[in-house]
């Protein structure tokens, strides 16, 4: 692989961790070293902690051995004072001024125990308290510093490594924010779905999936919304396009099965951007009970689990009589539980209890 092809492969590995093994194998061959590893490190007090380690094939096989010393606080390189002093650096065990003579001896012995020789690396600061490094180790027993040819190649890599590091860091931040957003979306009982103008589903939360599975007039087939009636398809597409307002309804076989849709957001059409124009929809149906966690109700209102379970079923639309039959208990027992729940919640009527529970959970 030529140097230019190797640089291109490094950019191609951004966002695809599995491809880094091939890239690092190629760099390792190019430099004639035993190990090539890409790491993202963060500061933690006086230490540097590797939060990401992408390795060549051999280093992956030896990861347990290497992590026992080379990637641990025992390694002098993982002190905070060894992080890059400038924005970028090309450094080595023999040149790093933060390492003392005793540090270098500890490195020599510790690396030998891992089957590794002397190390040298590229370093790049990305955000405060975080940097990346592309570190190489010679074969065991080889204590040579970087050669002029090594330096030439590392200087060729450095500007590209800097850009790749920024892309990796940016993507890690985006993925973290996306993970938090998706966790929130899945935790809410509001059914949410993102689709395009052709009703292709790009994302939905657990509540939307459960609602679609429960209703007879709508299905998801091959990653698309499909409605039993062609006029329903036209109405939903019109709502997504905004030609007939932001809301629409799709009747079911029973009155309680009607599906209500509201467009919460439409992406602005922009031909300069990749991707399809999407709409975020909220879905609901009066016949589908909201998902209420009885343990959460018990915690919020100081109820016993028996009282909270009754309350959750009342919020879902069940009567006290039906609940008693459902649980196999006397109706009088269920009414005593309701009376106790009303007193603890500070309300006098069943309707007020249901309203207070719904309002509290919605605000949370």
Please characterize this protein's 3D structure:
- By secondary structure, this protein is α+β, with helices and mostly antiparallel strands.
- The chain folds into 3 domains: 3-178, Beta-Lactamase, CATH 3.30.450.40; 188-284, PAS domain (Beta-Lactamase, 2-Layer Sandwich); 294-363, Winged helix-like DNA-binding domain superfamily/Winged helix DNA-binding domain (Arc Repressor Mutant, subunit A, Orthogonal Bundle), CATH 1.10.10.10.
- It has 13 helices and 12 strands.
- It has helices spanning 3-12, 20-31, 57-61, 63-69, 101-113, 148-187, 206-214, 230-241, 294-301, 305-315, 320-327, 331-345, 350-363, and strands at 35-44, 47-55, 88-92, 116-127, 130-139, 191-196, 201-204, 218-221, 224-227, 247-250, 259-266, 278-284.
- A hairpin with an 8-residue loop joins strand 10 and strand 11.
- The longest helix has 40 residues, at 148-187.
- The protein is elongated.
- InterPro entries: Sig_transdc_resp-reg_C-effctor, Tscrpt_reg_LuxR_C, WH-like_DNA-bd_sf.
- One of its GO terms (biological process) is regulation of DNA-templated transcription.
- One of its GO terms (molecular function) is DNA binding.
- Residues 300-357 form the HTH luxR-type domain.
